[in-house]
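=== RUN LOG ===
request id: a7f3
mode: sequence -> structure
chains: 1
length: 686
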Amino acid sequence: MSETEQPSQEIERVPKHGLAPSPARRVNRARDDASYSHEYEGPGQGDGPARNEDPEPDWSGLLTAIRGHKVTAACLALILVSLIWKAEFLSHFFYWEDDFQVLDLSLKSHLSWAYLTHVDLGHFFPGVYLIAWLLARVGLYNWLAGSAIVLVMLAAAGLAAWRLLRTLLGNRPAILIPLVIYLFSPLAFPTDAWWITAVEAIPLQIALFMALNSHLHYVRTAKFRYAATSAAWQFFGLFFFEKAAVIPVLLFAVTVGFLTKRRLIAGVRATIVRLWKGWLLYLGLIAAYAAVFLTALSASNNGATTPVAQAVRIYVWREVAKTLVPGLLGGPWHWYHPLNYASALTNPPPYLIWAAIILFLAVIVASVLTRPRAGRAWVILAVWIVLADMLPILLGRLQDPGYAALVGLQTRYVADAPAVVAIVLALAFWPVVGQSRDEDGRASKRRDFFTGRWKAVAIVSVGVFVVGSFVSVQRFQTAATTWTVTSNRVYIANAKAALAQTPAGTVIVSQHVPTTVMAGNFSGDAVTSVVLGPLSHRGSQISWTSQPTGSIGELKVFGSDGRLWPAAIEGSTTVKMAFLRSCVTTKRPSLVLPFQPVSASYSQVLRIGYVANAAAAGQIVTVTYGSFTGRFTAQSGAMNVYFPVHGSAANVTLQAQTGGGAVCFDSAVSGYVIPFPGSPIPSISG
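=== RESULT ===
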């Protein structure tokens, strides 16, 4: 035997034995089959009468088969229930902020290497860009399509977790406990509701489970093909999330801590010597990934920063005490409801924070009393949290203590923790398949917390966890409605309908979308021409402008409800003059329209309304507003002409060329563009 465990093929196939019928059942089944074939013999082949071709279903046999696979049936049922719950949960949400940014970017990009390796705020996720590129062309802003992708990933992650737990512990009822913790943890729900974070985080969890599953087979058989499969799953994780770089660390820790017979130091040496090919493959993959990642990072404006000590202390305390520990026990039970801020911010009451910490420590103590090696499992969890969840934040986002306080309350930074906790619980409380009591570190009879009366305690504890998780998720869902994230669905639907009905020749003023859609820090990526423009297929029939200029017939602007309204100017209007005194003619080529009081300092646009007769068409009119001077060519009929201006002015001076005809001015308005109250397009609700 080598220094690492090499269980026999019988041990390796333990999960399959749980599905195989007993010898007695095979004998009974053989007798039933013989009787069955005798009764079905046709004429000349037997003495018995022919049997009806549509026999009654054997429900008792079906129930017997289900009872024989009760663990499998229970696991599949748990996965199905979690998917139904999460599907209903996702139906209340929609795309938000970074979702629009990445989808809009994909529409403007070819499926190129530069696009896939684009680094945004330190994130390197080609897989997310690939899926966004496909989704934007198949169903832009279609939440049904986007949430379907998330649900497929969740189903794959649930099945991957089940498969790993079977390989790790065997097909035993004990695997239900860590599976429930993973499937129903409230820490993951807010991440699943935000499309881009879900598509980033769930593949990491799939990769974690499948890479460890393949690595377990590699440890048990020393067959290199399993190491190659594990490396392939690690690459899959890296393709979606840079956190997957920590997976080899977890594989090494599990191997040394639980799959070797030696003490810790000797186990490290034995593990490296026996499985050196696999470790070399894993390290080579990480080295290649790091080279690509650092190259892409250097080409971006992102980079590591030096964290502030006070910010680090605030972040670590809040992340562990207020977010992670309560979340692993079904919390946080309460959430903050900041206006226009849809990230999940935990807000557990102080007494529940300390209760959660005490209970979490009690679970650790109970596991150590059960199995001496259990402490290693909790060290693995701590290492993962520090390397995968905290270190990226420490290097990139902790310069401001105030911001650190917010980051420490966001669940998305520890959304992968339930997956690791499921593995840690399995290792802490139960022996790995093929592991004897001696190898577990204690030859004497062990105390088992999941048999007898302790089984009831475990069931009740899991029940309390599920109830707490349900309460936490429902309160988050209510809070998200308060944050008006779901109003984005109505906004996009209204905008799509409005653009479809907009007449040709319409000019739309491009302004910032509502902050519930994208916050102000997204700058040029958060204007209506970028976010809503792709919803229109009218091409050149409509146009967008950030600053109205020249004579425009139909000028419109999107309101906060997503409807398209006629544009109005909010600001200062010139004093109305008698009609005959407001005209420029050959005898009176100059006209002054005064503001009373002077126009506002925040003015951005000047609109002048005029009426010109046919004889005046083609005349050049010079406009003076403060230090600004512009010109326009008069057109016959009633028209509006727009100029970009800045700052305030006491009046508007109009100077026309000498010639025939008259141009009469209604008024001039200086300010900024707003939707005019009155909508020609009906609102879409729901």
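=== NOTES ===
Residues 453-482 form the longest helix (30 residues).
The CA atoms of residues 553 and 639 lie 7 Å apart.
=== END ===
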